[in-house]
Amino acid sequence: DAGITQSPRYKITETGRQVTLMCHQTWSHSYMFWYRQDLGHGLRLIYYSAAADITDKGEVPDGYVVSRSKTENFPLTLESATRSQTSVYFCASSEGRGNTIYFGEGSWLTVV
Amino acid sequence: GNSVTQMEGPVTLSEEAFLTINCTYTATGYPSLFWYVQYPGEGLQLLLKATKADDKGSNKGFEATYRKETTSFHLEKGSVQVSDSAVYFCALSVGNTDKLIFGTGTRLQVFP
């Protein structure tokens, strides 16, 4: 039971570079989410997706792009990384309709 | 708008002490309320939830009661263990999208 996996787990990149964080879930959950975790802010929603080819902005979408061509994958791309995007990124998924949301183990991203 | 406020940490307790972590919320409509726990280096795990007023969620000795009159969902445990040391997040969701809005998290440190 692989669940939900994120890659890479740790990444250091330079300002201005494009970075993609991968998220894969094996449950065929309809909903997938990307959150970032920062000290003093808790977790904030970046983007979410209700199904393949359907995505919507969350609270802090600027500077990020997502896609969902397949139900099981939900990559997050930082088009031109900035230091303010240094954070821990969590992918999550759920069946929707009030069912439990499951989180991946996180991707630690440092932008230098 | 919708928001969650939880007490600042860290909360430092001795083993077998009583734990309370306060959480209050502001929401339009009728939210579902959650407590998530994050152990060091891991993602978030659902600890308990309540979906309507006066519901009590419970798991692993933790309890929280959905209080509509005080817009609160305080987390309690009668006797904490060292293994309970973690960061605890209060969260809510409104509507059918399952988007979670998190508080800033409260770190609990339990010493032998």
Description:
The complex is a heterodimer of chains A (112) and B (112). Chain A is an all-beta fold and 112 residues long. Chain A is built from no helices and eleven strands. In chain A, strands 2, 4, 5, 6, 9, 10 and 11 form a seven-stranded mixed beta sheet that branches. A four-stranded antiparallel beta sheet of chain A has the order 1-3-8-7, with no helix packed on it. In chain A, a hairpin with a 7-residue loop joins strand 9 and strand 10 (102-103). With 112 residues, chain B is mainly β. Chain B has no helices and twelve strands. In chain B, strands 2, 5, 6, 10, 11 and 12 form a six-stranded mixed beta sheet that branches. In chain B, strands 3-9-8-7 form a four-stranded antiparallel beta sheet, with no helix packed on it. A two-stranded antiparallel ribbon of chain B has the order 1-4. Chain B is globular, with a radius of gyration of 13 Å. The mean pLDDT of chain B is 93. Chain A binds chain B through residues 31, 33, 35, 40-45, 48, 50, 58, 90, 92, 94, 96-106, and chain B through 4, 32, 36, 41-46, 49, 51, 89, 93, 96-105.
SSE layout:
The complex is a heterodimer of chains A (112) and B (112).
Chain A: E1 4-7, E2 10-13, E3 19-25, E4 31-38, E5 42-51, E6 54-57, E7 64-66, E8 76-78, E9 87-94, E10 102-103, E11 107-111
Parallel strand pairs in A: 2-11
Antiparallel strand pairs in A: 1-3, 3-8, 4-5, 4-9, 5-6, 7-8, 9-10, 9-11
Chain B: E1 3-6, E2 11-14, E3 19-21, E4 23-26, E5 32-38, E6 44-50, E7 56-59, E8 62-65, E9 75-77, E10 86-93, E11 101-102, E12 106-111
Parallel strand pairs in B: 2-12
Antiparallel strand pairs in B: 1-4, 3-9, 5-6, 5-10, 7-8, 8-9, 10-11, 10-12
How far the N terminus sits from the C terminus of chain A, by CA atoms, comes to 36 Å
Radius of gyration of chain B: 13 Å
Note poorly predicted spans of chain A. none
Largest interface: A-B, 26 and 23 residues
SSE arrangement of chain B, N to C: EEEEEEEEEEEE
The total count of helices of chain B amounts to 0
Low-confidence stretches of chain B: none
Helix content of chain A: under 10%
Helix content percent band of chain B:
under 10%
Helix and strand succession of chain A?
EEEEEEEEEEE
**Percent of sequence in beta strands of chain B:** over 45%
N- and C-termini, Cα separation of chain B: 41 Å
Task: Give the averaged pLDDT of chain A, no decimals.
Answer: 93
Structural class of chain A comes to mainly beta
